What does this fold into?
Amino acid sequence: MKETNKVSKMPVFGFAVIAAVALILALTACDILNNDDNDNGDGDGATFTSVDAFYKWLNQKPDNTPETPYKAKLKLNDAHIVLQAWNWTYNNRNKYVDLDCSGSTFTSFDFDGYSTLVGIILPDSVTSIGDKAFSGSGLISITIPAGVTSIGDKAFSYCRSLTSITIGNGVTSIGSEVFWVCDSLTSVTIGNSVTSIGHHAFESCNKLNGITIPDSVISIGEGAFIHCTSLKSVTIGNSVTSIGHHAFDDCTSLTGITIPNSVTGSIGQFAFNKCSSLTSATIGNGVTGIEHYAFNECTNLASLTIGSNVTDIGQWAFYECSNLTSVIIPDSVTKIDQHAFEYCTNLTSVTFQGTITDFASNVFGVSPFGGYIGDLRDKFYATDPTNGTPGTYTRESDGTIWTKSE
It folds into this structure.
C-alpha cells in the first residue's frame, strides 16, 4: 500500500517541475519580445521599448568610462520621456551611455542631470528642446534635428564635456544660459534661421575660439558671450540690430570687432569691457550711442572708428584704452560723458568734426589725479565756450598741453 502511494506521487512532482520550467521560459521569451533586446554581451546593440527595461539592463552592467560607453537604442512611443533616476542611483553612477533614440516618436523629454550620458541621437519627432533638457549631462557632441525650432533656457548648461554642437536650420531662437559653463566647447555652428541669442547663452565657454553669427540673427542678448576668454574672432551678421550689456565682456582673446550698420540704438554697457587683446574696433553708422564702460580697459585698442550717427559717448566708454593714439569724433556727437577717455595715456591726436554742447569736465581725467592727459576740453572751448571749435588737437606724448592744428 505504501509502495502504491509512493508511485502515484512521482508524476505529480514531475509535472510541477516541468510546469515551472515552462513558465520561466515563457516569461523570458515574453521579456525578450517586449524589450526587443539584442544585446550582444559587450554593451552594444541593445534595443528597448520601455524605460524600465533599459534601467534593468543597465543595472546589470559593470562600470565603464566615457571613452567606452554602452550603446543602446530606445524605441519609445510615449509623447514625453524622463530619464533621470538611473543616473542618481548607486548602481549606475559610473555607467556611461550613448543612446540612439532615432526610432522613438517622443516629442519632449527630460535628461536633466545625466552626467553619464555622453552621446545621443534624437528622433525627428522632436520639435523643441526644453528648459534644462540636457543640463549637467556628459554629452560630448550633438546635432540638433532639422525639425527643432527652439532651444529652451539652460538646455545644455553645465555640459562640461561638450566639445561641439551644430544648431540646425530649423531653430529660430536660442534661450538664456543655454550653453552656460560648457567649458570644453570649441566649435559651434549656428543655423541660418536663428533670430535671437538669449542672455548669457554662451557664458564662460572659455575654450570657444571663434563664432559666426549669421545674418538671420537680430539680437544678441545681455552677457551672451561673457567670459569666453579664448574667443579670438567674432563675425556679426548684417541683420543684428542690438548688442546687449556685457555681450562680449571679458573676451580677453578677441582681437578685432566690426559692428555692422544694421545695429541701431546704443552699444550696451560693458559690451566689450576688458577685451584686453582687442586692437581694432569699427562702430557702424547705425549706432547712436556708446554706453558706459562699453570699451573699458581695452588696453591694446589702437584703431577706433566711430560711426557717423553716434550722438552720445558714455561714462568710462574708452577708459584706460592706453594704446589708443588718435581718435576722430564725428560731427554727430553732441555729448561726451565723464571719464570717457581717461587713462588713454598714449592719445596724442583728437579730431572733433563738429561742435559739442555737453562735454564733461573730466573726460580726459582730472589734474592732478592719475589718468589725466591734459587740458583738451579747455582748449576746445577756448574761443567758443558754448559749442567748442572743431578741428584737430594734438599734444606731445609726454605732455599735457594740447594745441589746435591750423
Q: What stands out?
A: The CA atoms of residues 191 and 399 lie 52 Å apart.
